[in-house]
Amino acid sequence: MVLLTLMAIITVGIVRIRNLFGVVVLSGIYSFLMASVMIVLDAVDVAMTEASVGAGISTVLMLSVLYLTKSRESVPTSTPLFPVIVAAAAAAMLLFGTLDLPPFGEAATAVHQHVAPHYLAKSMEETGVPNVVTSVLASYRGYDTLGETTVIFTAGIAVLMLLRGRRKSTKPSTDA
Amino acid sequence: MKLDLILRVATKLLCPFILLFALYVQFHGDYGPGGGFQAGVIAAAMVILYAITYGLEPAKRAVPPAIAQAMIPLGVLIFAGTGVATMLLGDNFLAYNALDHHSPVHGQHLGILLVELGVLVTVAGTMVAVFYAFAGRGR
Fold first, then answer.
1. Distance from B39 to chain A by nearest Cα, in Å?
2. Which chain A residues contact residue B111 at CB under 8 A?
3. What does the mean pLDDT of chain B come to?
4. In angstroms, what CA-CA distances link B124 with A52, A67, A127, B30, B32?
């Protein structure tokens, strides 16, 4: 609860601050808080990923992007009425969706009844890996992880092509 | 680029341990939290830390961009190649039991290790290559 309150405060800060360097630092802190929430929820693997990717790499990448742009957000020219309506509608729909969710931590829900008991009971026997997250990720759900790796591959190649192509077509300028 | 001496020395001291921690996360992923993805990110973070402290050119000498870019498809190939290997050994795609005919559990271990290695290579390569691409644009 404390963590979620802090995250809400930081979100307000990210919205209000115009200095983009501060925004990047705040979003890094936000990721660390998210990682702490994951640890509280006993999802250490996810927490590790969030801390290293969300707080580490993306902060650095955002900073290196910041180096290429201005460090102050420009004041919006139009009134933010339409975005506010869209955001409120999306929030209302999400809140409406949560009404149908089972109680938090309920063991008798559908997702915990399908294949999860088999994984938990047989992981050690079938794969010899004590960390069930790893055995599910790499063995039982190997196809999904292959797809995930392919997504990273595709995204990386796409970003590289975008950054390269621009440089080839235009002359290198300092204020890119 | 003249930077703080303390930062430089600390970075030089930290780099091997960061890499060691990445390998620990990679190979201990069977027993504790972690795996190829996290290890790849940590390894990439080491290269980025080095590049931030010492400048882009020394980092590019240590880890050439061509290698980082070659790692992106290489990891996917290791992953998919493991699947093809299990098919050639007469089982389904990514069914690691076929990797060791005497003990399915050993086959699983080997398969998971190879697959996580593929994830590590792709993730680390992508992160470093994207960082180089961003950092190299400003000058």
1. 9
2. 138-139, 142
3. 85
4. 12, 23, 26, 20, 20
Q: Tokens 């729909």 — which residue? A: A93
Which pLDDT does position A175 carry in this prediction?
46
Q: Which residues in B lie closer than 8 A to residue A142 (C-beta atoms)?
A: 83, 94, 96, 111, 115
pLDDT at A173: 47
Alpha-carbon gap, residue B82 to B87, rounded angstroms: 9
Does A149 sit within 8 Å of B75, measured CB to CB? yes
Report which of A47, A29, A27 is spatially closest to residue A37, judged by C-alpha positions.
Answer: A47
A128 vs B32, B69, B105: nearest CB: B105
The answer for B 22-41 residues in CB contact with A (under 8 A) is: 25, 29-38, 41
pLDDT in tens, A34-92: 999 999 988 888 888 888 888 888 888 888 888 787 777 777 777 778 888 999 999 99
ipTM score above 0.95: no
Domain locations along chain B: 5-135
